[in-house]
Design brief:
There is one protein chain. The chain has 623 residues and is of the alpha+beta class. It contains 23 helices and 21 strands.
Length: 623
């Protein structure tokens, strides 16, 4: 098949073919220009153009890929191929000059490439397609050079392709780079997929027949086909989930294309009626699209006790935009496509704006743009993208700077957690704020995203420039023996006292409530009073070490020798009793109070356990 026949195959219009033919004719001048890989730049350009055609890139992108490397001036290109192609070639040539050979050059190359993406994203398409061909023709290079180029693709170009919604190109780049970086593991997975292909194909054929049978009269299916996961995506699952390759039960999936959004949900309902869904695997990226504008409904169904099949349901437009990303943008000029495209570009502008004054531009960019990410949700279902290992505080600053500045905790999937809690894919996060909170220097080390780090630094400067009366630290307001057992990381200078309504003892699960007197009252998490004021909760925890005097109280049945028994028990737990006294409360009840100096939390738990075994004990509490 000739290159022109290939272009016809991918439905380019008849008026585009003469331009492609003219570009190929001029590119023939590169037949005598060798590449390091041993072939010519003419052959390279033809292959790059074919890759772009397979991904349905715009005609001017195809032309630019064919004539790159020619010594044609702007005016000549404009006359031959049009002013739009001439403008695009300026950006393509700029990207061809970029080098990532050392860290200093990397940072500058990053900036230029991302700025080019904003200026004319089509130029990046040519660069990405060229990287695919480079990896396919890299075998003649020394191993260390192959490894360097493969790592560059894995760290920079494949993640950028993902960001631009180029799923097919991203997968190709990852698999090619992985084959070079870890050839043994690549071959192991490749051989396993090859050996199990017939069985997997039969399973897919069977499940497609079943789906067509039960849905034919209820929803129109435009297409339904099986899909194999990429080798690198399988490898990542093996590593992330600590699986053995033979334990992977979802190596294949099915993609169902239906006419409209309502049909996506209708098909989802039919699937869940006929198959048992896998708990926790339903993801609605139509209602809440991924930040790279990807839309689809994902679910997983059980075929047997061991077999699982992943299913994606989407409309034709969603499918093309998911597979081809910005490469498909030129074919969709409607409002929805424009909004999706602008969302990608606005996100990128925001990242670059944040990094303008950042001395660690390269490293933070690798986290924000090129690192592994997770997706979490607000209680309203808005999706938020964060770096892997991000904590609650990262999420808070992603929602809004003021939310981050006043964050004290969060409810993640309904469970109360501190700011340092690490988030997982799919978590639903509700940030708990308190107007008395303010950003702290220690937060800079806590967060993973550069966005949060920049916002914290900015807010710290603003707070440091405020007069003292604009905010107050929480000051101790209790006597020395109180406020020793419990602490708050969010309000480190506050006095934390044990609430008298529930009298928590060391080892109980506790939360704090900031009182009007600016004291933190620590309650058992099951305390009825605390449950009525959950919006005021802040995280607190038992201190691990003490070496300070505290008061320990015991209420028990009044009897002769009670005080002596308790003193003996306390001493047996390793404590020196500094002070001991007893009083009669009436109703055959006595209260004994002791002043002790505990070493740590474990010693206090031991004390409670021993005292509870003394005859007649009714209550133990601390101050």
């Amino acid at each position: 098949m000739t290159t022109l026949e290939l272009f016809k195959k991918f439905n380019y219009s008849e008026k585009d073919l003469p331009l492609f033919e003219l570009a190929i004719k001029h590119a023939e001048a590169l037949k005598t220009v060798p590449r390091k890989s041993g072939d010519t730049f003419f052959g390279h350009n033809l292959r790059v153009a074919s890759i772009l055609a397979e991904n349905k890139a715009a005609p001017e992108v195809i032309v630019a890929s064919l004539i790159q490397g020619l010594n044609l001036d702007d005016k000549t290109i404009a006359v031959l191929f049009g002013s739009e192609t001439a403008a695009l070639m300026l950006q393509v040539d700029e990207l061809r000059k970029l080098t990532f050979k050392n860290k200093q050059l990397q940072a500058e190359a990053f900036r230029k490439m991302l700025l080019t993406t904003l200026t004319d994203v089509r130029a990046v398409l040519v660069k990405l397609a060229a990287k695919i061909d480079n990896l396919r023709t890299i075998a003649v290079f020394p191993i260390d050079e192959q490894q360097r180029l493969a790592r560059e693709v894995m760290e920079i170009y494949a993640p950028l392709a993902y960001r631009l919604g180029l799923d097919r190109i991203k997968s190709q780049l990852e698999d090619l780079a992985f084959q070079i970086i870890n050839p043994k593991k690549y071959r192991e997975i490749f051989d396993f997929l090859k050996q199990s292909k017939e069985q997997r194909d039969q399973e897919i054929k069977k499940i497609i027949t079943e789906i067509n049978a039960f849905s034919s009269e209820k929803v129109q299916i435009i297409s339904i086909k099986g899909r194999s996961k990429s080798i690198y995506s399988i490898y990542k699952k093996i590593v992330d989930r600590n699986y053995n390759l033979h334990e992977m039960f979802d190596l294949s999936g099915i993609r169902i294309i239906v006419p409209e959004i309502k049909d996506c949900y209708l098909m989802l309902g039919l699937l869940h009626e006929h198959f048992e869904p896998v708990e926790g695997r339903l993801k609605d990226y139509i209602a809440a699209a991924k930040p790279n504008s990807y839309q689809s409904v994902h679910t997983a169904i059980k075929l047997s006790s061991e077999k699982i099949m992943e299913v994606q349901i989407r409309t034709p437009e969603m499918d093309e935009l998911a597979e081809e990303g910005i490469a498909a943008h030129w074919r969709y000029k409607g409002l929805k496509s424009e909004q999706a495209f602008e969302k990608k570009m606005a996100w990128l502008r925001g990242v670059l704006d944040l990094q303008k004054e950042n001395p660690d531009f390269l490293e933070t960019l690798k986290v924000d743009i090129f690192g592994d990410n997770i997706y979490c949700y607000t209680p309203k279902g808005e999706i938020k993208e964060l770096p892997k290992q991000a904590c609650v505080l990262d999420f808070a600053y992603l929602v809004h700077e003021q939310i981050g500045n006043t964050a004290v905790a969060a409810r993640v999937n309904g469970i109360f957690v501190p700011l340092k809690h690490t988030l997982q894919m799919g978590d639903i996060v509700e940030i708990v704020t308190n107007k008395n909170q303010r950003p702290r220097r220690g937060w800079i080390k806590l967060v993973k995203s550069s966005r949060a780090r920049q916002k914290i630094r900015k807010s710290l400067k603003e707070y440091e420039n405020l007069p003292a009366f604009h905010y107050r630290e929480l000051k101790p307001a209790y006597r020395d023996e109180q406020g020793i057992l419990v602490e708050s990381e969010e309000f480190p200078s506050a006095t934390c006292v044990l609430a008298k309504c529930c009298l928590a003892i060391p080892g109980d699960e506790i939360i704090g409530i900031l009182t009007k007197r600016r004291i933190i009252s620590a309650h058992k998490t099951a305390c009825r009073g605390a449950l009525k004021e959950q919006e005021r909760w802040i995280p607190v925890n038992w201190k691990q070490t003490y070496n300070q005097k505290i008061m320990f109280h015991v209420r028990a049945d009044e009897r002769s020798g009670l005080l002596a028994d308790l003193v003996h028990t306390i001493a047996a737990a390793g404590f020196e009793v500094k002070e001991a006294k007893a009083k009669f409360l009436g109703a055959q009840t006595a209260e004994c109070s002791f002043s002790i100096i505990p070493k740590d939390l474990e010693q206090l738990k031991l004390l409670v356990g021993k005292v509870e075994k003394v005859r007649g004990i009714r209550m133990i509490y601390f101050e």
